[in-house]
Structure formats: C-alpha cells, structure tokens
TrEMBL record:
Keywords: ANK repeat, Repeat. SUPFAM superfamilies: Ankyrin repeat (SSF48403). It comes from Aaosphaeria arxii CBS 175.79. It comes from the Eukaryota. This is Ankyrin. The keyword Repeat applies.
C-alpha cells in the first residue's frame, strides 16, 4: 500500500497516515488538505485502520474526518462497503474499534449502522458488527462490543454465537453465552456448527484444511461451554462427529471423559469406532481417535446396519495397518461375517481403496495380518453370499501363490 501511495503526490495525507507520521499528518491538516479524500484504499481514516495507526486515526477523528465514509473492502472475493468502524472490526484493530465507537456514539448508535445508513437492510454487507467480530475470531472485540451496548438484538447475538462456534472462537462463545439466554433449538444448532466447523486461515480468509492441536483444544473448549449452558444436548451425536475427524481429538476426549458411551449407536447402528477407522478429511484415518476409543472401552465387534464390524470398515475404507493391528489386539474377530457373510479378509480383498498405485502391497500386508489372526487356509477359501473369496480374488488379480511369504 505504501509503495502505491508514493506514486500520487495528491495522496500525501494517505501516505503520512500509512507511515504513522503524525507530524506530517498534522501539518497537512493545518495546510487545508482534505481529510476525507478518496483513493483506491479509501479515505485516510480507512488507511489508518488498514495500517493499524491508532494515533493517526485519533488525529483524523479530531480533525473532523467523516466516520461514515464507505470503502469497498474485498471480503473473500466480494466487495463489502465498510465505514472505518466496520473495517476496524473486520481487521481486528481493537484500539481503533474503541476509538471509533466512542466517536460515533456521540452522533448516533453505532450498533444500528449499516452501509448506506439503512439499519434494517439485509444482505451480504449488512451483517452485524457483533457477527463480524465473532466470525472473524476476535473474542476481545466481541467482548468489547457486548460491553459497549446492551441493545444487541436476539438474532444478532444468536448469529454471532453460531459464527463463533463454527470457527471455534472460545472466548467469543463464552462471552455471548453469558450475554443472553438461547433456546434449546438454537443451542442445538450452535453445537452442530461447532462440531462441523473449523477455524479460518487468517481470520477473514477461507477455512484452513489442516488444523493444529491448539485448534482441537479450542474446539473442545467451545463444546464444553456450550454443553455447560445446554445440559440436554445430544452428546452421542457430538461423540460420533468428533470420532470421524482427526482434528476433533480433544472434543472426542472431552465427551468420553464426560461419560458418553463409547459404544453408542447412531441411525446406521454405527459406533464411534466405525467412524474413526474410515479415511475422511485430508484422506486420513482418525488413528488417535480410534486408539482413544479402544482405551475407553469401545467394542470392536459391534455390527452396524450392514453387519460390518469396525474391522470390516477399517480394511475396506481405512487402509491403516496400525489401526488394523490395534483392533485385532483389542479382540476384533477376524472371522466375523457381515450381512452378506463376508469376512474382513474378503472385504479387504475386494475393496476399491487399494486400486491406488502402490497400495497393492499394503493390501496384501493387511490380508496376511488377517489370515494369521483367522482360520488360515479356511479363511482364504471361504465364500460369501455373492460367491466371492480371497482365493478367487488372488487368482483374478494374478497374485502369486507365494504371496503369504511376502515380508511383513
């Protein structure tokens, strides 16, 4: 921004603001320069926000800068008309938010302001300041806004809490829960958003694909706050959602420690263990989640609606040999039959998961592991209701007779 401003001599005030050069800024104001001059970066006050120059912003406000001048801020590929206060909330400039709120309060209620001056409009650019702070994960600003005014509408608070839960902004979740009472239906929605959401990359940018352990801790903290406020929540659903995503490990741990049954069934008769052993986000198995469930008493031999045990699902849609080993160590039945009389070996042999280049060796290693835990030759020759067997699969795929002798 500074380099662009250098090219235009008429934007000397914008440049001084960008640099935080308060002496030059005062000089330009005294010389009669327009404190509201527009540019591709908006008015000088917008530049003060973007450059986080609080002292310059204070000087501009004192010089009578227009507090409602609009600048089209690029918000995830869409232009959102922002006055300086709205921009400051978007960018997390807490000191400037406090400054501008106080200045605007002398003229009108900043809470009710919308671009164009219409407080009741809907649409993309009309989101509440409270919602923006919560959605962009600025808990301190969220708390400030709640303290500035007690006139936030119920729908504003609910929307803000839903956003905060979705991006795992624990501080905002806690503050908003303390600010108002929410219905059971609303609380259920907040929990769903929290369990299916994830943090943004750099606050107002798109959600990131890979979450850290710190993110997982924040999610669990949000879940704890929400459950404390809503004791009647469906914790079984929370446990299942946490089990299927590796980045929800701390929420999984929290719900288990809260006493939720690790063998609870969902509508498909799946247990959390069924969910954990399948590859999902970023093509990963929730290995740590599966191990945690087993440590807390998860039964690997519970059949789902298709008669499949966790071992069937692990070899069909997981492909993680460590998980397969741990399931067998936990007592998983290597000869268990699903609703079509398929064993885990047959399921592993005919799974499309291993059609990926280089995965055939992994598939054979898993088959050998199952063979050793099962009934030997009888396991290879067993046919399911569709007439499939490991022996037929090996012949169809030209697997050599000595395949069992491959190094483990």
């Amino acid at each position: 921004m500074e380099e662009d401003l250098k090219q235009e001599s008429s934007l000397a005030m914008h440049l001084a603001v960008c640099r935080g050069d308060t002496f030059s800024l005062q000089t330009l104001i005294e010389a009669g320069f327009d404190v509201n001059r527009d540019s591709e970066y908006g008015a000088p006050l917008h530049v003060a926000v973007m450059a986080e120059q609080t002292e310059a912003a204070q000087i501009l406000v004192g010089a009578g800068a227009d507090l409602e001048v609009l600048y089209n801020y690029d918000m995830e590929g869409q232009d959102e008309p922002c006055n300086p206060l709205r921009l400051a909330v978007h960018l997390g400039c807490r000191d400037i938010v406090q400054l501008l709120w106080k200045a605007l309060s002398a003229r009108r209620n900043p809470r009710t302001y919308r671009p164009g001056g219409q407080a009741d409009q809907g649409g993309w650019g009309q989101s509440s300041l409270l919602v923006i702070a919560a959605d962009d994960d600025y808990p301190e600003i969220t708390m400030d806004l709640l303290s500035f005014s007690d006139e936030w509408a119920p729908d504003e608070r609910a929307s803000a809490l839903n956003c905060a839960a979705r991006v795992w902004s624990a501080g905002s979740v806690r503050a908003l829960l303390q600010s108002a009472h929410f219905t059971d239906d609303e609380m259920s929605c907040f929990l769903k958003s929290c369990c299916s959401g994830r943090p943004k990359c750099f606050n107002h940018f798109p959600y990131r694909g890979i979450c850290t352990h710190e993110d997982s801790v924040r999610q669990a903290q949000c879940v704890e706050y929400l459950l404390d406020a809503y004791p009647g929540a469906d914790c079984i659903r929370i446990l299942h959602r946490a089990a299927q995503n590796a980045y929800c490990i701390e929420t999984l741990r929290f719900t288990l420690h809260r006493g939720v049954d690790p063998n609870s069934l969902d509508g498909e008769l799946k247990t959390p263990l069924h969910r954990a052993v399948i590859r999902r986000v970023m093509f990963r198995v929730n290995k740590d989640g599966a191990f945690l469930l087993l440590e807390n008493g998860a039964d690997p031999n519970i059949p789902d609606v298709d008669g499949m045990r966790a071992l069937h699902r692990a070899v069909e849609l997981g492909g993680d040999i460590e998980v397969v080993k741990r399931l067998l160590e936990a007592g998983a039945d290597a000869e268990a039959l699903d609703s079509e009389s398929a064993t885990p070996m047959i399921t592993a042999a005919y799974s499309r998961l291993y059609n990926i280049d280089g995965w055939r060796v992994l598939q054979i290693r898993i088959l050998k592991l199952l063979l050793r835990a099962g009934n030997g030759k009888a396991s290879i020759e067993w046919e399911d209701d569709r007439g499939r067997s490991v022996k037929k699969w090996a012949k169809e795929n030209k697997i050599p007779d000595q395949w069992l002798e491959l190094d483990e």
